[in-house]
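Lab manual, section 2.4: Encoding a predicted structure.

Procedure: take the sequence of the chain (120 residues), apply the prediction step described in section 2.3, and record the output as structure tokens. A sample record is shown.
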Amino acid sequence: MAGKKPSHRAFKVADQIQRDLTQLLARLKDPRLGLVTLQGVEISPDYAHAKVFFSLLTGTPEQTQAALDQAAGFLRNGLFKRLQIHTVPTLHFVFDHSCERAADMNALIAKAVSTRAKED
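Recorded output:
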């Protein structure tokens, strides 16, 4: 069934994974990690996989992605100890470009407003 909506429980588990990962990330001492913010988690219906969307305040997406991928086993083990579910998902980290797009859009709007103000 393509397009099946996630259950309420899946949303709760994804939210708990996001909160727990935030705490676990604070323990990582990898210098490649910038200031990481977890934007959300999407979990597969069978709980086998979780896409973890992140954004950055500092650092590069490529280096941060590499550090997160390398730490995925440690993070998954930490989740295993915290979550009360049978299957702890394999973590897949994905850089979220929405913050960059929002900043670009705000800059375009500001430019358009200033251009219009100069014309008036």
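Check your result against the sample. The CA atoms of residues 47 and 89 lie 6 Å apart.
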